[in-house]
Amino acid sequence: MAQVSLKDVTKYYPGNIPAILNVSLGIESKEFVVIVGPSGCGKSTTLRIVAGLEEVTSGDVYIGNKLVNDVPAKDRDIAMVFQNYALYPHMSVYENMAFGLKLRRYPKSEIAARVKETAEILGIKELLNRKPKELSGGQRQRVALGRAIVRKPLVFLFDEPLSNLDAKMRVQMRTELNKLHIRLQSTMLYVTHDQTEAMTLGNRVVVMKDGIVQQVADPISLYDKLFVSDAPPENIIKATVDVVEPLGSEAFLYLTTKRHSFIAKVGPHDKPEVNQEMELVMDMSKVHFFDKATDEAIT
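The structure assignment produced for this chain is given below.
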């Protein structure tokens, strides 16, 4: 497996539209790193730059100790798993998994061995003769994973691979991905807008907004920080309750002040009335501030 490094990487799209700005990120060998953020934050662009599907405007990208800025995607020894599975509908599961190896002219015996081994790891051995249309969403995602695994790449890249699955299947596939990472001991970079995926999958989590890396930390350290943008220095905030969203084990309060809107998570029985005014006490040891103008963390 290999390290991945981005050093001051910036990407502008035509029309001088910024996608990511001065992103520096190091991913250790065998590490599972998740980039999380809202749509348009630059997380998928960052992934595509590592994959070689986007060119950098400035900065350097390394896989292992090799500068890969000018290396085509097919020569970077990476495997990418997409949101939409990208399976060939006319091919069987076996043929889909074997296709990349056939293009690289691997011997038939080695292709068969790799496909069989991978199918056993993913629990899809009995599906090898089926076509994609005969599979469930979860089974298709396993095939897409299998197509990546058989190549035994230096780095796995995941572009929101679970977003098309229902909630139950997403939970199951998160567990499978964790097991897979432990078994393969591979370097993995994963992007998502789902905070639960980020917290449960990543050894470290990268938080992005508007093309800027705001935080990089392990999930627990990240959880212990409260994200507050342009917050006052006082630790008591007076706010009005706009919406109460009960979730069973907890409740979300959607609150507004004269200047800000934010969300607070409270216990299941701590549910104020809509339009009620309340005071919230902030634990300043767990507050993290960001510059309103630049979105950069204030240390």
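Interim note for the steering committee: The CA atoms of residues 109 and 238 lie 69 Å apart. The first helix runs from residue 43 to 51.
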